[in-house]
Amino acid sequence: MRYRTWLINEIYSQLRTLKNDATFQDAKLFLYMIEGAIIQLLSSDAAIEREKGLDCFLAGLVFS
């Protein structure tokens, strides 16, 4: 649970740098969207789509 709180705080911090009037609720919503996308990719039978999602995620980590 502490990890989730930390992650929401980090997302909120990043959103505030992009948009001054971002709220904590925006950060929570953003995290829910990410979680939903991950669950959808992992639960689908399309292995290629899962691989594309993983490639995109890893590329974001490498080039960030």
- How large is the count of helical segments? 3
Uncertain ranges:
none
Q: How many strand units?
A: 0
User: What proportion of the residues is helical, as a percent range?
Assistant: over 70%
Q: What is the succession of H and E elements?
A: HHH
Structural class computed from helices and strand pairing: mainly alpha
Oligomer: single chain
General shape:
elongated
Major β-sheet profile = none
**What is the rounded distance between the termini?**
26 Å
Radius of gyration: 14 Å
Mean of all residue-level pLDDT scores: 81
Strand content: under 5%
- How many domains would you count in the coordinates? 1
Overview of the molecule:
This protein is an all-alpha fold. It has one domain. Helix content is 84%, strand content 0%. The protein has helices spanning 2-18, 24-43, 47-63. The protein is elongated, with a radius of gyration of 14 Å.
What's the short version?
With 64 residues, the chain is an all-alpha fold. The protein has helices spanning 2-18, 24-43, 47-63. The chain has one domain.
List keywords for this structure.
64 residues; mainly alpha; 3 helices; elongated
Any chance you could write out the topology, listing elements then pairs?
Layout lengths: L1 H17 L5 H20 L3 H17 L1
Helix pairs in contact: 1-2
